[in-house]
């Protein structure tokens, strides 16, 4: 028979830790399953130079602020230290090296098959994030390419790319940072931009752009667009016309590139910009704009999708690849199923995790109390 517990939380990254702390705060017994060998496994393994784009005042998890000595934008290593400290401070019931391999539901019970055995619970929180599910496109002719093709998730530092010809595919925040870092370290970098990018400053009048976005999003849509237009105008007055094509969508509708590290490197001639990749050749790539070039390495900064594989066909996803939900965290497809870490916008993924962890824990605690009554 499977071991039983009222609630299982899958994942011990920021979302899982926040959910666990809120469940513990409400006296709800639970277990947290982490596939990696440490709390915050994803943050332990992302690239060395990664730094939060969001300010520390809106990036902490519930119940524990960053120390005053922490920089406004917290580096990856310091954030990982914070996650481990967070788990220790609250004594969270985390089981590392315990991967949720298959999740099923029957007779009002969730069953989680792991590499260490089977667990059962009344309620389930999926807090698996996105990094475990990188989007890896395959291009025509890829089998002919003699170089190395990797996803950005395996990138650690620029040293292996110095003096090499590198193509970065994609212009999200990770692609922008990786491309500019390699270029400044001495790599010959080209970035493939299929549909353009909205670029916003990291700070505005000394405030993180996230703080500005938090208040702007409280305005009517027309006022929000006006604020976006003003930021764009101020940026162009200070820095000149944009060097990247502007996409059809607004910065309000998808997370923009935050900071000018990429556009500065392009303006300085350190990075070439091409269209989308049409096909790969034996020694490089052909682009949608009709040009071609030779490359030694291709880094796919093509993003991630929600890591939902253990749920199989139990849930459907929305247009962005996240599980369908109501009230931010509640599954539309299954009862007693909740998602924390599935809301991303300009106010910051970590800020949304704070909100969603509190909401999910409150709903679960209420439901368990009603079932006992």
Task: Write the SSE topology.
Elements: E1 3-10, H1 14-25, E2 30-34, H2 41-45, H3 76-90, E3 94-96, E4 100-106, E5 109-114, E6 117-126, E7 148-151, E8 165-169, H4 173-185, E9 188-192, E10 199-200, E11 203-204, E12 207-208, H5 209-216, H6 221-239, E13 257-258, H7 261-267, E14 271-274, E15 277-280, E16 284-287, E17 292-294, E18 297-300, E19 325-326, E20 330-331, E21 337-339, H8 349-372
Q: What is the CATH class name of the largest domain?
A: Alpha Beta
Order of helices and strands: EHEHHEEEEEEHEEEEHHEHEEEEEEEEH
Could you give the distance between the termini?
A: 26 Å
Return the structural class.
Answer: alpha/beta
Q: Could you describe the largest sheet, including whether it forms a barrel?
A: 7 strands, mixed
Range of helix content:
25-40%
Radius of gyration: 22 Å
Instruction: Examine the secondary-structure arrangement and name the CATH architecture of the largest domain.
Output: 3-Layer(bba) Sandwich
What is the averaged pLDDT score? 95
Unreliable spans: none
Question: What does the overall shape look like?
Answer: globular
